[in-house]
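Agenda item 2: DGJ complex prediction
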Amino acid sequence: MIEEKDGFFCLHGDSFCYLLCLENGELSLIHFGRDLPIEDGAALKLDRSVLPGRATLSPDGRTGAVTTSEFPLGRYGDKLSPCLQAEKGGKSSFDFLVRSHRINELAEPMDGYPTPKWASELVFELADEAMGVEVELHYLLFKTAVGRYMRIVNHGEPLTVRKALCSITFPFVDFSGRFLSASWADEARPSDVRFNCGCWSMDSSLGASCEAFNPFFYLRRENGECYGFNLVYSGNHFAAVEAGKHGFTRVMNGISPTAFAKTVSDGEAFTTPLSVLTYGEDLDCLSHANSDFVNGCIIPEAFANKVKPITYNNWEATYFKFTRQKIYALARKAKKLGIELFVLDDGWFGSRDDDTKSLGDWKPNLKKLPGGPRKVSDYVHRLGMKFGLWFEPEMVNPDSDLYRAHPDWALSDGVHENSLGRNQLTLDLTKPEVQDFIVDTIVSAIKDYRLDYVKWDYNRSMDGFPRLEGNYCHEYVMSLYKVLSRIKQRCPDTLFENCASGGSRNDLGMYSFFPYGWLSDDTDSYERAKMQRELSVGYPFSVFSNHVSAKTSHQMFRYSSLGTKFDVAMLGCLGYELDLSALRKLDEREIASQISFYKAHRELAQLGRRYDVSGDGFIAVESQLGDKALVSFQAKEATPNFHYDFLHVKGLRKEGRYILKNRKESFDLRRFGSMVNYVSPVRIKEDGALINLISRHYEFPSEETSLLCSGSALDAGVPLPPAYCGSGISKSSRIMFDFSARAYSIEPCSEGESKAKSKE
Ligand code: DGJ
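Presented output:
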């Protein structure tokens, strides 16, 4: 609900409010946090009758000193940075006053950007009459978030906008923050900052949103309250947190000002992307606000709050080297194990046998796949699975028919020889003919090959921009949105997976079109556990595409059992990416049992609420939905000697009775070295032939945990069985190799189960 009373405006969400005051044409923030009545505005408003020394005043008595302005311009003693930098006719000083406002039951669509669903809206209209510029400040109210953007309208001489950020100023200075830095295979690495005085900023400016930082970050106050910031945008972005001497903190985010200059001509408008602001009384509440917002308002209608299929993708199993027979064998095995969607990754087109050629030539490679993808699609469909293909539509290899026919379609700075990234060039998406080519390619492939799914990849960063004026990078992103809207309009039910060498474009702009994404090319479970823990503060599990890959990580050479890989991959949308046709029988059985476990808990795994229940020495992330929970428990390095790990399970009914169980796993005997003789009736040599033979048929079973207790006890924390501590291997000790994992399910316990358990 949006309320207005006596110069105050209050946007009430489900459990927060955003309270503003409009006075003398100036808009300032009164409160953003737990919900309050609008009438409290008067009491919460800062008394500015006494100003700090050297404060300046406008002729009509306004001051920028100690102001929580919602549109700060660095004037009248405001010591923090302005949110707008622009010039017009050689002048660059602006002074805007609010002239009017309007409230819309349904938010107006944003010019060219994906507009999240289900928002009402408050719009303030500001003008600097002397400069001939108007600004609209839009506030979109969602159940669990506020969205903000500005629309700048110019009159007369051209205006060049160099920086236009969303800005919020808090009248306190006790924040620390966490940003997620990113590089290939190392996405979402947390970096913590304590803001005292001065400015800290992050800038991601190589084309894709997550080249350097994810657009999501959060701040936490000393009292535990948390604020989340994100952008519905897929390109270069910037954020700054600035703490000032008078105890104020300003947070800004938006398009990166690096290499940005947008000229707005007479009568034209420039609109900034939507900044998303969320609030939580603690970090878990913040993650709930974010996941409700993304699941409810960002994800395309056809997929919102629905579960996704279990996928098989052949990439790490075959890379470019496959034949139709190999693909068929993988598909048969995938079906047998319970997989629902089969994806043929890179290498099915042109003469693509490695990454040096053929991007852009989206015609089947008939040598590898006689009959082309349609034949494979029919085969997979006959097996009873869905079928999908990989594309990298925005790119071209110089060694391709497409490039030979249209060299001018590739992005070039017009002066130097083009740079190559993974041997490829970026197509100039701002060209209408390139947009048509991509739309036709994808739409015809979906129809001709009967695709249920498309993986949309993007594998190089952008450099050598052809022009600064007109702002190339931003135009590129807006062209991408045009292309994606056209495709989605024609194929609304096709499932698209977002990918950019893993997670280089893991942002809300992309999720507005594609309901999930490949988080990282690093499929090592410990690395993924860390990433998932951080990303799940800002994004729901439903957008995580996680695959179980080969035991020895292709990215790290770290060994993890298939069980460990699954226990981490299960939080989100599950897939497999290892060579299924080379599995031992035991591994096949393990995967089949993982899949049936996942099917029984899929809603919970994809659509649940996140709680971080990590402890010393382990990462534990919980997903809770209704009366059930699932915990992914990832140990760090094994520790010597005895200790207990306590597992907390949050969000359940305190008085409810629950049963907590681990998913049963088993361990390869070869992991025990010569300790294997503690459990073997005959003497076995640690690296002899016998152990290899036995381990093909037998694995050592994990402990079995089954605890019956109340929701209160779970919330307080229950002790897990003691971890193996250097003496004796037994079926009741919890054997945790370095970086191994467990999955715990928590379900309500029936009377009968409760009685039976107490008799045990
Ligand atoms: C990068 C992706 O992240 C991988 O999953 C795979 O699709 C390769 N590209 C294919 O080239």
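Discussion summary: Residues 315, 345-346, 390, 457, 459, 499, 501-502, 518, 521 surround DGJ (CB under 6 Å).
Owner for follow-up: CH.
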